[in-house]
Amino acid sequence: MKQIHWSGILSAALIIFVAASCGTESETSQGDIQVIDLAAAVGGGKIVNISDVADDIKYVALETTDSSLIGERARVQIVNGRIYVLSSQSLFSFDIKVFDINGKYLYTFNRVGRGPEEYSQMSGIEIDNVTGGFIAFDLFSLLFNSTIQSGSFKEYDKEGNYLKTINMPVIKHGRLESVKRLNRNLFISSLGPKSFDQVKIHGAAFNSQSNILFEIPLASMPDYVPKETIGRRVITKDAEWEKQYHTWSPLIKIFKDVARFIYKYNDTIFTLNQNLNYYPSFVINYGNYRNTSTDIYNTPRTKSDFITIDYSTFVESNRFIMMKLMLRDYAHEPYDEHIQTKRNDVMTLRRTDCYGMFDKQTGQFNLLNQPVKGKLGLREDINNGPLFFPTDISADDLASTVYSALQLIEHAEVYDVKGDLKELISKLKDNDNPVIAIAKFK
């Protein structure tokens, strides 16, 4: 398969030409390509209300019992009418609490162990966006034995019952080290971050029989991005250091029934659909705000003359794409964040981040100004609740995020909350389980 040479900002016509010339008809599809014009948005922004992007927002108090207690660093995901909350119970331990859409506790998913139906503590867990079950990809063997050519993952149903173990396909160069599900019999994985050989692809789509159905073409990387490093094939005292190659593989995000491929150093976001057509969908225009430093491992978060996107915050609905940006020297609303340390001291950090929102319907990209000085998000103008920014958007456009009970109680002490939220907060106690905000996006 030929490498796709797309880098920098290209016109839509040029991208379509390159797409057509670099892939077979079964590999690429020439759809509409939209430009996310980040450069044009720098220097200004606007306050956006939740009512501008959502038809409604509701708050769901998660049932608080001895079995359902949520730990630290909680993250929420809504799949097939259920609420999944992943949280840390200790430094190296986490589980997933499952609730119905009204917040009633159902069960806890945690199958850590050494048995054939269990996964290691070093596994990556994905909530299966197709079945509502779980996928556990075992990272342990890959981390501690770099001679292994492929890993495996375990499937569980929506009640947490073990179904089967599937081996990852073996590829010639590199190693598949993640897994996402696109449909009942189609999985996608990107390559691990490093390889002892120069890779020929950036990932693969495969079925449950471990047969590769499509290879993700290489996306070009700028010349200033380092291509080589060193590493050991086996972690032992006698292992020798060898040349390794950076793969710069994409982050894969599932949007409804397609997969998005997002590259840190390529400005084009690609799509793979159910028919295994692979095509460019969005181009990010950084303009003069691109990071072209050769020292990519030393990129300050607050001071420098370039802008980057925190792709881990990338969420997409039917109409909107939202993400966090590190604006650095170009922040028009820098702010101070006060953090309490373990010694009860207060540490002040300068922040230059900002949320951005792209409207796929109008083609407009805007920076989201702070509705309250020093606080980021959409203004919650329906119930006068706390600022909102989704950490997940479901296939049916339910955007969600988590608030602690104490956050909401303190918010109501300052602001005149309304509607069902006011009644919900009146019943909360400080140590209750978190509350999930769910906005139905337009």
Structural key phrases:
mainly beta; 5-stranded mixed β-sheet; 442 residues; 4-stranded antiparallel β-sheet; Neuraminidase; disordered N terminus
> What is the helix tally?
6
Computed structural class? mainly beta
Measure the end-to-end span: 39 Å
Question: What general outline do the C-alpha atoms trace?
Answer: globular
Number of strands: 30
Rg estimate, integer Å:
23 Å
Question: How many structural domains does the protein architecture include?
Answer: 1
CATH topology: Neuraminidase
**What is the percent of helical residues?**
under 10%
Chain oligomer state: single chain
CATH level 1 name: Mainly Beta
Biggest β-sheet, characterized? 5 strands, mixed
Provide a brief overview of the structure.
The protein has a single domain (12-441), classed as Neuraminidase, CATH 2.120.10. The chain is built from six helices and 30 strands. It has helices at 12-22, 38-41, 50-53, 140-144, 405-414, 419-426; strands spanning 34-36, 54-61, 72-79, 82-90, 93-100, 105-109, 124-127, 134-137, 152-156, 162-167, 180-183, 186-190, 194-195, 201-206, 212-217, 228-232, 241-246, 251-255, 258-262, 268-272, 278-284, 308-316, 320-326, 335-340, 346-351, 353-359, 364-368, 392-393, 398-403, 435-441.
